[in-house]
């Protein structure tokens, strides 16, 4: 990367200083140098906003990438995967990278290749893309620098907002400016007036001083009717939220470099990895219901388990074995008890907070002033250093093995701090802007019941009509609770624990982010970004990754640019279809403005594909025929006549013309057809939304503030259950042929059926003439949901199993039926005599799949295989029929 080393030295060594007049004007003011604030500035500048002022309270751009030191990229992980999966191949993500996030990661990985010899120098088979924070900071600066040089962007560091200018309009106040004080002072020395402000700060600083409405803490279920929200929040104090973590970057040193023992070090804080004996650990009695899981026992000091050794690999930034400089660096972020919960604070922290203000120790971290937050931060730092001391002295302390000894590692010297720790903690949750629409858990999941735990490869229950970018992740709360020893209370050691309803096992479906969730419900002149946007606490836990925060900032920057250039309030854009399309064009369509953003969450669509923009824009307009589970668009597959006709019919519903331009469409792929259709549509007048009432756009009695769909009357369920076709009803054909054999897979307690032989999952028996290679008799179910027992019962496997039946050699016609009358099932697999008849297919509850195959038997056994090894999904086999096949003509 040209001049990158020089840029790195320049940006790392030189802090931004600016002599600024006390009063300034700007078109767009951005508060916060987070990855979201940076992206908003980049996007607005690319779209031609002439005056942008970016004010940050630190010196580093990049937020969690840099000053928070989360130096392993959390991103959607791959087709078929969400979150941290076992397969972390760099090209396997829930979505392909797009937008500014892709541009940024391309530069980071190009720099890594040049310096370390690999785009992912931390051993890519063990983790995600990695980087050194200082080197990433240089790349953030390098990308923004052209807009600073041309005068579009003014960068001001070391300042935070302390006061706001408000102009009272007829219906709501408008933010017109902010007063900033230098960090360490409360006296403002800078006043900036702006037409529009984006709050991309760590703690919603602009939102708070402006007086815009926001929420913190756990949402009760009564607020947004979320099925996973607590019914009673008495056990969730006001200061309970996703914990912070003071990350540490440690690097291999030339010799042992043990740190000094931190204040208040207590080995019992790290009971999950402690050197205490098993008996000593079980003797500890905590005042909350703590689950320790498998408690390790160390025969001698320094003998680590595989899980402990994994801390060397799971977030390794640079691997010394493969990098050019042969030095290893590692991110210590959350493993082994490093997280710092924010409720039930230790006594010494409570005392320090109460000295600043009575009741300060019960305030939510968001609501604390900077002095109070620093008390929390100092103890979180101390706690992280205690973990490092613990690792150096009690877990990884073998001097003879420097590869697996943290005594041979030191805190990174790349941060410009006296303690060599990052300037800020990793922040998982901020305030939640009370927005035009608050995203709910049930919007992002096709709710099959409140206990459904896993993501499905399907689109979300609600695909917001004003969606701007794709997202998917699990609702990832780290342990938010803190437990103390009963005998010592909050004066002694503590460990974190998982509170009910605050877990990491619920997963969203493939979703989009609505523009409305950027816009305050009660204030103009302001947009949210970073983690200060309109969603519930549960949803906030799923929209906080590196890629999401970058794209969220990019969306806020595009919204701001269109608002300023078209002289329209951001709150009017979701109701103005033409202006909404301009925002989408800014994100996905302006070819000279960088890599396009993925708007619709197709799994297989890459920005480099020629039809990427056309497909995304048509999907966002709802021009493309879709089904809830067809998450792959298959742009290179043939465009069938039926599909083209449906697409053209939907296109007519979005434009105000009687006839669309015609073009030759035979022989085209789906992507090519979309390109031609989009070219014929994009300049035509778009059909405007018809707004029935000011506060209820579709007149369905659901106020817009609670209506995710806006222009879809009634309940916001976008995907309708299919009506069963003949091959989906699970019913047998009316045949009287005596040559047909029918096998019903059912339990032993089910009454026999006159037309069927019953298979109870038993092992193959020569006398019976059919059966399984292993005993599946416990894998039988009957749902009592449909009247016919042969389709209400089934045998299932989560692995791979084989059924055989003795038959004469020759050709056979075989029909298999899979499905579950009571539950959705995904990823079902069936082969007959090696011929794949069902491959990774899903069935809704009450729907089935019937598949026919003509096969040849040559070993006197008809063989049917169901399921796939380690699939994690069920294949449910209801029945099988087979008969000799007539000669082929």
From TrEMBL:
Highest taxon in the source lineage: Bacteria
Key words, A-Z: 4Fe-4S, Iron, Iron-sulfur, Metal-binding, Oxidoreductase, Signal
Protein name per Swiss-Prot or TrEMBL: FAD dependent oxidoreductase
UniProt xrefs under InterPro entries: FAD/NAD-bd_sf (IPR036188), Galactose-bd-like_sf (IPR008979), HdrA-like (IPR039650)
Taxonomic lineage from the root: Bacteria, Pseudomonadati, Planctomycetota, Planctomycetia, Planctomycetales
Any GO molecular function: oxidoreductase activity
Organism in which the protein naturally occurs: Gimesia fumaroli
Signal peptide start-end: 1-19
